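Chapter review: from sequence to fold.
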Amino acid sequence: MSSIINNDILQGGALLPLVEDFYTIQGEGFHTGKPAYFIRLGGCDVGCKWCDAKYTWNPKLYPPTNIEVVVERAVACKAQSIVITGGEPLLYPLECLTEQLKARGLQIFLETSGSHPFSGTFDWVCLSPKRKQAPLEEAYGKADELKVIIETDEDFEWAEQNAAKVGEKCLLYLQPEWSQSEKMIGAIVEYAKNNPKWSISIQSHKFMHIP
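The token string follows.
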């Protein structure tokens, strides 16, 4: 399975493999609780076994969509915050999309594993590093928020390895992997209490039963 569409087909980012775009409430990390318009792109080459968006992995399931159509839908919603997510959105050139969104006065938040080179302009970058494909070094300097998924006790060490690489102003979050939440939440709470540079992120949208 190819995890990316040829850039020629995408016309340099004028078209992107759109999985879905929708208006909702951000459920994770620093912006939890904020209304935002989500733009979800298809394609991922990381392949976490616990991913809750596996349907996005194969971008060939999602025909390239003209970004102007997506931008118009985003502008029409009441919230002025945009979340670009995936899949892994940095598989694609995002300059065209972010330029058009910024030209309309919108704030742009990116959710990424940081495993591919950056493109585009963002007001906030949430870096969620994955063991299977670690972030590129450039990602650490761009992160406003580091969100590490905790599935087992070994992931606390992984969290610290990544925290050591981000900037001083980067916010640090530990988030339980959903299927292991009940098992791991106690350990996460104790870890944050003992290491208060960390905050805890919960997937609150799942409790609210919203996308």
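Two observations follow directly from the output. The first helix runs from residue 67 to 76. The helical segments are 67-76, 95-103, 137-142, 155-163, 181-194, 204-208.
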